[in-house]
């Protein structure tokens, strides 16, 4: 019995050594680096280092707005935008959608009846996947069909307020809210109480 336990301990030890060695070799060829500043990531940090994560501070909530963003368009947020557009890391889209959903709740907007996609229906691009992930988080359908009795949420990666206001005027919904990861310009350039 003792010999069998010693064998199992020896096998587990060898397996752990093998895993550790393989991990070290992979780190040598494929190091875990911050997507923004390329510094080595600490254990339990993914995609961005501790310093760069400080750029991820939500915009201050404003009342009576129906068009808003999550972050300012600068630093790590630009890197995050680049990553969701390339669609190389699928979990980045889910993380970005989570930021958008949190900001939606911080703004105290009502739950939408539908997520209205603004992407080209022939191409499933990053906008489509971002809208889809928000739809899944909020447990609301993503529909192109308009309805005057429904509240719609439109999701963007980069939000252009002038274009969005033109789009809103043409949509046939009871109320339309629009949210993006960031505005297309710096935050202080606009009066957002439109």
Main attributes of the structure:
single chain; 194 residues; alpha/beta; Rossmann fold; four-stranded parallel beta sheet; disordered C terminus
Polypeptide structure, described:
With 194 residues, the chain is of the alpha/beta class. Helix content is 43%, strand content 13%. It has a domain at 57-189: Rossmann fold (3-Layer(aba) Sandwich). The protein is built from six helices and four strands.
Q: Round the mean pLDDT to the nearest integer and report it.
A: 81
Largest sheet: 4 strands, parallel
What CATH architecture of the domain at 57-189 do you see?
A: 3-Layer(aba) Sandwich
In N-to-C order, the SSE pattern is: HHEHHEHEHE
* Structural class label: alpha/beta
Shape: elongated
Q: Whole-Å distance between the termini? A: 77 Å
Q: Which percent range describes the beta-strand content?
A: 5-15%
Radius of gyration: 22 Å
Low-confidence stretches: 187-194
Number of helices: 6
CATH topology of the domain at 57-189: Rossmann fold
